[in-house]
User: Which sequence fits this backbone?
């Protein structure tokens, strides 16, 4: 079955530590996205990528980094510079080929990150 | 920046009743989408309505769009306990080709 896989489901970070959240999709989608969700809140865009080897900052990129070396993969690193990383992180993808904007996004089941 | 805002923030109804959620947005849109999120899970796409459409149906879902008022509504008819979830509207931030989401409506359907 096609879909998006996020791992791990739960992650704990020690102070001063960088951690990487994995996101893999087999939907052959061009665009991928990372969102942060705080309790009872909506989604805030961290980074997005419309094509391999290219990505753009969203609303809250500070303290985060990404890479897009393969179409299927868009890992997110939460760096030690992110002082309040505790949140639910969601990865999504969409077709987003030229002329097909606004396509529905497919989401993974998220990674819950907490500070030790 | 958040494009859409849902209203009410929380809604509690009895099974069998209808649930109506509203969404307001700020700028022009090509389409508006509604998503559902079960607790602790990712979002699931429910329905997309284009800017030239006024109403769209999908099963027990009915979505309306009023571009003059920059608002949309999602109606769930004959609700079930399994409809308990958060519901979000979203639209495209054309400046960066990424969807923006509101804060959502938390729907509780009592059995």
Assistant:
């Amino acid at each position: 079955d096609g879909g998006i896989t996020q791992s791990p489901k739960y992650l704990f970070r020690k102070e001063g530590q960088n951690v990487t959240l994995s996101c893999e999709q087999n939907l052959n989608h061009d665009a991928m996205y990372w969102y942060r969700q705080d309790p009872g809140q909506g989604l805030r865009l961290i980074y997005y990528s419309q094509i391999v080897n290219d990505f753009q900052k969203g609303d809250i990129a500070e303290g985060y980094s990404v890479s897009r070396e393969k179409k299927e993969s868009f890992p997110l690193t939460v760096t030690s510079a992110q002082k309040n990383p505790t949140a639910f992180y969601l990865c999504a993808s969409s077709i987003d080929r030229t002329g097909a904007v606004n396509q529905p996004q497919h989401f993974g089941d998220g990674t819950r990150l907490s500070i030790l | 920046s958040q494009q859409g805002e849902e209203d009410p923030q929380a809604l509690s109804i009895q099974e069998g009743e209808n649930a109506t959620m509203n969404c307001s947005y700020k700028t022009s849109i090509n389409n508006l989408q509604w998503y559902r999120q079960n607790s602790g899970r990712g979002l699931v796409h429910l329905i997309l309505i284009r800017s030239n459409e006024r109403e769209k149906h999908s099963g027990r879902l009915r979505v309306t769009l009023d571009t003059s008022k920059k608002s949309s509504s999602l109606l769930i008819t004959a609700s079930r306990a399994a409809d308990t979830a958060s519901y979000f509207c979203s639209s495209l931030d054309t400046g960066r080709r990424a969807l923006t989401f509101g804060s959502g409506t938390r729907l509780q359907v009592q059995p």
Remarks:
- The interface with chain B takes residues 4, 6, 31, 33, 35, 40-43, 45, 48, 50, 56, 58-59, 88, 90, 92, 96, 101-102, 104-110, 112 of chain A (CB under 8 Å).
